[in-house]
Design goal:
This protein is of the alpha/beta class. It has ten helices and eleven strands. The longest helix is centred in the C-terminal third of the chain and has 14 residues.
Length: about 290
């Protein structure tokens, strides 16, 4: 098997349909493993019958435990995980596979992503940088998006699975262990993935803030003291890599309004600055009388 893509799922019926469609049309040999924790929102009515995926319905101990379960079942040469509200752009896996073929020394490949709102409209670009341990430790911000991260099977053979003790910040802890293990990171300057900012993403919730604070507290005192300089150095690296100079582009994704056919969206004025999506506030109708 060429690629194995793992998707943890729980009560994400509409988003999961778009995610699956974006993997199914990649045109490369792959398997898509869905680890569902027992959704009760109608997902299981169709998921277990979808021939495009291998669906496993079982309780888990959180997202990272679900991802690990999928990775242990995976048979692919190249692996990745993709959340329900994320999707691959056309030809993404072919470009990733070609890079791995040309660079057998690469263990982990980091690609670029775009961030969109729930309607699929463009918010910003998110280009990847090879991570630095201290920045990952103290910044609370990864230099990559895991939805555009791909790795070889030999990573798992070294036991480098996710730590299920984390509920929200397991990505950062995993990256730090990869750096400690001296795996080879490389960047592919191609947008492979769309990440949906729903306004309800896990990294904005209270537990994520707690885990971020705990990770920062575990850093050495000198790193905490130099935190502003470390973040400034990261931004300088982004500037030198050209991340703040994004050219006009377009992308094609599935949307909730078009779940069976990709929609092309033009981006005449792209940006690298993420203005977070804020869901509109709705008020109940005023009672009369």
């Amino acid at each position: 098997m060429r690629f194995s893509i793992v998707t943890p799922s729980f009560r994400s019926n509409a988003w999961l349909k778009l995610c699956i469609a974006s993997v199914a049309d990649q045109g490369v040999e792959h398997e898509h493993l869905i680890q569902d924790a027992g959704s009760d929102d109608g997902t299981l009515d169709w998921l277990v019958h979808d021939s495009r995926v291998r669906a496993f319905v079982e309780k888990d101990q959180g997202m990272y435990d679900a991802i690990n379960r999928g990775l242990r079942r995976a048979s692919g040469e190249y692996l990745a995980y993709l959340n329900c509200d994320e999707q691959y752009l056309p030809g993404a896996l072919a470009q990733v596979g070609a890079f791995f073929d040309r660079h057998p020394e690469t263990d982990v490949l980091l690609a670029d992503a775009i961030i969109v709102n729930p309607d699929g409209r463009y918010l910003c670009h998110r280009q990847a940088l090879t991570p630095r341990r201290t920045h990952t430790w103290v910044s609370g911000n990864l230099s990559l998006l895991t939805c555009a991260t791909f790795f070889r099977r030999r990573i798992l053979e070294r036991g480098l699975f996710f730590n299920p003790a984390y509920r929200d910040l397991g990505d950062a802890e995993w990256v730090m262990r990869l750096l400690d293990a001296r795996v080879r990171f490389d960047c592919l300057p191609v947008v492979t993935t769309a990440f949906t900012d729903t306004g309800e993403n896990m990294n904005l919730k209270p537990n994520a803030q707690r885990e971020r604070a705990q990770l920062l507290a575990s850093a050495p005192a000198w790193a905490r003291w130099l935190r502003p300089l470390i973040i400034m150095h990261h931004r300088w690296r982004r500037f030198c890599a050209g991340h703040y100079f994004v050219r006009p582009c377009s992308y094609e994704i599935y949307t909730r309004q078009s779940p069976e056919r990709r929609v092309k969206i033009e981006v005449p004025h792209p940006t690298a600055i993420h203005q977070r999506y804020v869901p509109p506030v709705t008020f109940p109708p005023a009672s009369s009388g």
